[in-house]
Predict the structure.
Amino acid sequence: MSSSSFSSSSVARGSSYRSYSRSSSTRSVNSIENLPPRTIARVGREVSDLIKSPPDGINLVVDQETGLPSSLGEIVAEIKGPQETPYEKRFFRLKLVLGAEFPTSPPRGFFLTKIYHPNVDMSTGAICVNTLKRDWSPDTTFSYILSVIRCLLINPFPESSLNDEAGKLFMESYNEYSKRARLMADVHGRPHSSAAMQGESESKDDERTDSPKRKSLSQPGSNPLASKNSNNISSSNLGAKFGKSLGSKQGSGRRMMSKKKSLKRL
């Protein structure tokens, strides 16, 4: 297969695995509802850990308004392409779909961004990695799974490939494999982190605020992950400023009254 024919067919398919993303959302929502409370609590803790201390090159994708995942049944993350690989300087989205038997059974992993890799199915984005198969343990964390998948971008395993063409090419000619993987990464991968783009959009929204006073008042409650302490501090600062200005006005009013009384005496 030539590079030209490869690129045209790849671009025609679009940048995400639509056949998977349409059918999976309903199943994952139903499965999370069927999970026992203890498992749901564990998922919540792991999500919180991912937000606070994400592994290197990995960001959890969260809802812009709530600062939390849209669904606990589908853990969506963004992986930064490792350096010195065909995927460097590009960002790729994937998701872990939890089944009703989690954590006894492993989640299923799917790339949402199209990627040319021996262990990723070209039609569905399904990921083949031993951590989610024979090496699965109920104690395995989301953080570890995502780290292993990122390592898979550095060291593919063509022996258990889901993309036979990519696996064969990787074994026969790494340079040609790298060219095709780089081409797909340039076409479908994100040049910038979506998390960074969300931060930029939020700062632009703040710049569009008409009144500087309104901007300063809206900031404490604008971030759903902001601590209560920060809101209390902001409120106390505003209260102190307001009390100080009110006290100065009252002082100036008393001085004016004393001046009027002295003038009447004259």
Observations:
- The domain at 3-195 is CATH 3.10.110.10 (Ubiquitin Conjugating Enzyme).
- The beta strands are 58-60, 74-80, 91-97, 108-111.
- The first strand starts at residue 58 and ends at 60.
